[in-house]
Amino acid sequence: MRFAIAADHNGLALKQHLITWLGERGHEAEDRGAHGPDTVDYPPLCADVCSRVLAGAAGFGIVVGGSGSGEQMACNKIRGIRAALCDSVFLARIARGHNDANVLVLGAKVIDELVAEQILAGWLETAFKGGRHQHRLDQIAALERGESLS
Length: 150
Fold this sequence. Notes:
This protein has 150 residues and is α/β, with parallel strands linked by helices.
């Protein structure tokens, strides 16, 4: 699997750890930045990762911030992106299985490397279940298009 991955200054160390972890498991992680400790804005990083996912250059995106909250908001402003902020394996499995999330957001100030590995492993092991969940994704897509659900 190919991932596009980025982190702001808060998530650099965790991003590097995950790139190595993915590589050890036969996955490819394209490092989209940031590349140094200077403070950076995360919205451009989110937009870049999401554009790689939407273009098919990456199967999934990973964005690492301090809390991950702002990154999740930024990613989810992009039509076609379903970004999930996960701090547990349970949330990662729900995000993939029920919501077909295509971007994983992590908070480097919230979880440690071991928990991040467990979350990513749960993400990788879980496929979208379809069925009744597809109807809900269709509703989310309608909301993105500005359509009413009533």
